[in-house]
Specification:
The chain is an alpha/beta fold. It has two domains: about 120 residues, Aspartate Aminotransferase, domain 1; about 240 residues, Aspartate Aminotransferase, domain 2. The protein is built from 16 helices and 13 strands. A seven-stranded mixed sheet has the order 2-10-9-8-7-3-4, with helices on both faces. The protein has a two-stranded parallel ribbon with strand order 1-12. A hairpin with a 4-residue loop joins strand 5 and strand 6. It starts with 13 loop residues before the first helix and ends with a helix. The structure holds pyridoxal-5'-phosphate. Pyridoxal-5'-phosphate (PLP) binds next to helix 5.
Length: about 400
């Protein structure tokens, strides 16, 4: 049975994680995987999360199954975070939420829904993107195509090319958009650009799927939702795949959500019955712990404030690292882009598309034990106080 199954290529990000772990060098540095570290390199548990866990333990909610679509109170706080308090589309019942195992689970439930009910649709994905996007949608039997997004020459959004490519969308196709902190480029559209993008998607009769894995890691929780809210104002139907992996540091708890916005409550509720089918035949019902933590924190003003303060601190550290990395490279006379290194500070989120070539990335790994993704994507949130100088020195050595 199994002899003829060919070996799969290792995952470009998690595969590198395994190579990193196996590397015996003491000074090795992991800037590949998208996990936030504090200045000392620890992947911390947020205080608000630990406090919620203590309270949960006292309550002991048990280990029963959750409903197929997860906890109702979790769905409510997810929608409030995405759309803002009291949004009319929530009041009108146009949005339904399925709690899913992480943002990945939300994307897969979306893919299964479209794979079953929109056979023949093409899902349009930004070039570049988080590599898992392709496998998730193709795995559900959907075709994928890419649209141009990033202009390496100017290190910015290539809006004209993107809009040009979006003209090829057919009615019933779907477009995957990164809600904020685009992975891997860190380049997000401005409000005016979001408007043009949303209008192009609407004109084509296509469905926007917003992958929203980094809310709060850019300019703030509300600010980062600006693009999504512009899309909602223009497109009558949207799917949002959100995640608390990064902004709650709940990576392993798999707390994500798929929120479907339909033209009216009846359509939304009918769609929910099919979302339930997609979940039931896949993992039956979602894991409970992470969602309980999130629901408790977001519905308790004291814990919510504590979490927002911690999220601001994480974000502040990322901005600080961006600045320090840029300065360190400037001081070494390294220019990662023809216009200089300013892009490191203007990009948003955990990642910077460094412009390092594949050969330079390989040298960083082989000669200096510094692991970054082959595309040149650096997780700036992984740069600790202790490694800033060795990282800058190594980059200077491979670039010069
Ligand atoms: C763009 C993007 N979407 C989705 C995810 C999935 O997040 P999760 O770990 O919650 O499944 C990630 C995680 O790295 C991501 O970068």
């Amino acid at each position: 049975m199994f002899e003829t199954i060919p070996a799969a290529a290792p995952d470009p990000i998690l595969g590198l994680q395994a190579t990193f772990k196996a590397d015996p060098r003491a000074g090795k540095v992991n800037l590949a995987i998208g996990v936030y570290c504090d200045a000392q390199g620890k992947t911390l548990s947020l205080k608000a999360v630990v406090e919620a866990e203590k309270r949960l333990l006292e309550k002991h909610p048990g280990h029963g199954y959750l409903p197929i679509e997860g906890l109702a109170e979790y769905g409510a706080v997810v929608r409030e975070m995405l759309f803002g308090a009291g949004h009319p589309l929530v009041k009108d019942g146009r949005a339904i939420t399925a709690q899913c195992p992480g943002g990945t689970g939300a994307l897969r439930v979306t893919a299964d829904l479209l794979g079953t009910h929109r056979k023949g649709a093409t899902v349009w994905i930004s070039d570049p993107t988080w590599p898992n996007h392709f496998g998730i949608f193709q795995g559900a039997g959907l075709a994928t195509k890419t649209y141009r997004y990033f202009d390496a020459a100017s290190n910015s959004l290539n809006l004209a090319a993107m809009l040009e490519d979006l003209k090829a969308l057919k009615p019933g196709d779907a477009v995957l958009l990164h809600g904020c902190c685009h992975n891997p480029t860190g380049v997000d559209p401005t409000a005016a650009q979001w408007k043009q993008i949303a209008e192009a998607v609407k004109a084509a009769g296509a469905l926007p799927i917003v992958d929203f894995a980094y809310q709060g890691f850019g300019d703030g929780l509300e600010e980062d939702a600006a693009g999504l809210r512009i899309i909602l104002g223009i497109c009558p139907e949207v799917i949002v795949c959100s995640s608390f992996s990064k902004n709650f540091g709940l990576y392993g708890e798999r707390a994500g959500a798929m929120t479907l916005v339909a033209a009216n409550a009846d359509i939304a509720n009918t769609a929910l019955t099919q979302v339930r089918m997609a979940v039931r035949t896949n993992y039956s019902n979602p894991p409970a712990h992470g969602a309980r933590v999130v629901a408790m924190v977001l519905s308790n003003p004291e814990l919510k404030q504590m979490w927002q303060d911690e999220l601001k601190q994480m974000c502040g550290r990322i901005f600080g690292v961006r600045k320090a990395l840029r300065q360190a490279l400037d001081q070494r006379g390294v220019k990662l882009h023809k216009d200089g290194n300013a892009f490191i500070e203007t990009q948003r989120g955990m990642f910077t598309m460094s412009g390092l070539t594949k050969a330079q990335v390989e040298r960083l790994q082989k000669e200096y034990g510094i692991f970054i993704v082959g595309s040149g994507r650096i997780n700036v949130a992984g740069i600790t106080d202790a490694v800033l100088v060795p990282v800058a020195d190594a980059i200077a050595a491979v670039v010069k």
